[in-house]
Amino acid sequence: MTIRLGLFDSGIGGLTVLRRILERHGAVPVTYLGDTARVPYGSRSPSEIRSIAAEVVAWLRAQKVSTVVMACNTTNALARDVTEGQAGVPVVGLIGAAAALVKESRVGVLATPATVASGAYRESIEALHPGTLVVQQACPDFVPLIESGDLRSDELREAAIRYLQPLLEASVDSVVLGCTHYPLLVPLLANLLPPHMRLIDPAVAVATQLDAFLGQPLPGSQNQPVSLEATHICVTKDAQGFAERATAWLGQRPCVDLVNLQP
Ligand code: DGL
Description:
four-stranded parallel β-sheet; globular; Rossmann fold
């Protein structure tokens, strides 16, 4: 089977995973779906999230992807089994891989309300590192504010202060960015946290997991320019707005197609 990764997220967040993959593996063929018609996923019920995942994976399957990459923690937390059951190809997720990156004994997790309620991060971290204190914080305002495009807004800063407070009070030593949108906030979060506190981006672990499918990584490091020549980005709403919002993170304006997931 020809290699083609199928990545999906509710919106722009999965691009943080896409970029880490392209940095590590070069211009591998990728089909990316941002389900912008239904963002945010993280404030929806488990059954809605599961039926959305089923629909998205059916669409990716029709695109003949050879591996599905869940570039969305919320579906990873609530619909990994649905995805694996329907994909018909290997599925790579974020949460177990991120848990493996934890080294500290006091860990904060920032995630969507649905991911936090599922307890998936707590369970994965505690299973791999028994005795670790895991402090989870749901961040319902982050995704809508990030999708609105202004990463420097006062609302975003105020929300970040509010969400970090319980983690600071619990004296955690690292913070897992448990939603793929949140790496876009690293400059803001780093500014609000003490310098010793480590931010853990699960996307790094996903890119590493893909070595098993894509072979040895390229030499080099993060934040290299990436090539989108083999990447096909699709969204379910507002293709132009998405292209605009993706430009800063990808370092270039991508071509974005509008698609309908219904067959
Ligand atoms: N970026 C996704 C995640 O990692 C989904 C966020 C949302 O749509 O609420 O959870």
